[in-house]
Amino acid sequence: MTETEPTLSEDVDALRAELAETQARLKDAQGEMARLVRLAEADLQRRRPGEPSSVVASSVRRPPAKEVAARIAKFVHLYREAAAASPERAPVVPEQTMLDWLETSGLFDRHFYLSCNDDVANAGADPTRHYYNHGSEEGRLPGTL
Fold it and tell me: What is the DSSP string of 51-105?
């Protein structure tokens, strides 16, 4: 071993520091996700059928659909990262709650998604579930906005 190569102890210390940093980022992401989920769940409780989401109306200034798609993809990524990092605990929120929120958020349009994605329509897949599990990461648009 040369003098410039790190020792095993130094490698372990570096990995521990990286793990601590990752855990801190994960804790921050879980906190932000929990906050957003509380807002969305409260909004779902208050809304009447057909009424637009007040959370969306107050927090989204109707950006282009590509920007909305990027935000949803980031949110889904954070959710999956949090779930993968803590497999011994239940997810912050069940996937079905995430799907329900996406469906009623005003950000996702089932008919638009199916009309623009023949492969999803031809497969008979649920458009919301497909978008959540695949389309958001593939950069497919959730609606026209």
Answer: PPPHHHHHH-----HHHHHHHHHHHHHHHHHHHHH-TTS--SS-HHHHHHHHHHS
pTM score of the predicted model: 0.51
Phi, psi of 52 (to 5 degrees): -70, 155
Mention every residue, 6+ apart, whose C-beta is less than 8 A from residue 100. 44
76-100: per-residue pLDDT in tens? Answer: 777 777 777 766 665 667 788 888 8
Angle at 86 between CA 91 and CA 88, to 5 degrees: 85
Helix axes 95-104, 8-46, angle to 10 degrees: 50
∠ Cα 45 81 29 (to 5°): 60
Instruction: Tell me the two tokens of residue 94.
Output: 């069940």
Task: Check residue 61 and give its pLDDT.
Answer: 47
CB 69 within 8 A of CB 142: yes
Q: What is the structure's pLDDT at 65?
A: 67
CA distance 19 to 24: 9
